[in-house]
Amino acid sequence: MIVVMVIEKPQTATRQRDFIERVRSEVAASGKLPGEHVVSLMRRFRVTIRALSARMDLTQKRIRQVRGSGLTNRNAIRDWIEAITGEDPGDLGVG
Q1: What is the C-alpha to C-alpha distance for residues 8 and 65, in angstroms, rounded to an integer?
Q2: Residue 39 within any structural domain of the chain
Q3: Is residue 46 a contact partner of residue 82, using CB atoms and an 8 Å limit?
Q4: Would you give the DSSP letter of residue 33?
Q5: Whole domain around residue 65: which residue ranges?
Q6: What pLDDT is stored for residue 35 in this prediction?
């Protein structure tokens, strides 16, 4: 029997937090979450379209649409960031 252990480097967690902060500041400045950021977040946190679809109870088609066009609704942006990262991003400062 082969046992494989995955150990996350401490730097990875720090880089992920830094990345989330960068996305938060860009969202606060522009008031929208571009599709490219959704794709980047999903890649950074290793979340597949299928997994996100199950977490948010949305269709995979809708996930692909948002990856292409992004989001402008403040509450939707917050929900998406939380679903992808597993952390509440807090107030995004957009109206």
Answers
A1: 31
A2: yes
A3: no
A4: B
A5: 31-85
A6: 93
pTM over 0.85: no
Asked if residue 7 is part of any domain, the answer here is: no
Give Cβ neighbours of residue 86 (< 8 Å, ≥ 6 apart). Answer: 45
HSE-up (13 A, CA, CB side) for residue 25: 5
Matching residue, tokens 């029997």: 1
State how far the alpha carbon of 62 is from the alpha carbons of 5, 22, 50, 67, 70, in Å: 35, 25, 11, 9, 11
Is the residue at 11 inside a domain? Answer: no
Domain tally for the chain? 1
Tracing tokens 């959704």 back to the chain, one arrives at: 38
Average pLDDT, the chain: 85
What is the distance of C-alpha 94 from the center of its chain? 17
pLDDT band at residue 1 under the 50/70/90 scheme: low
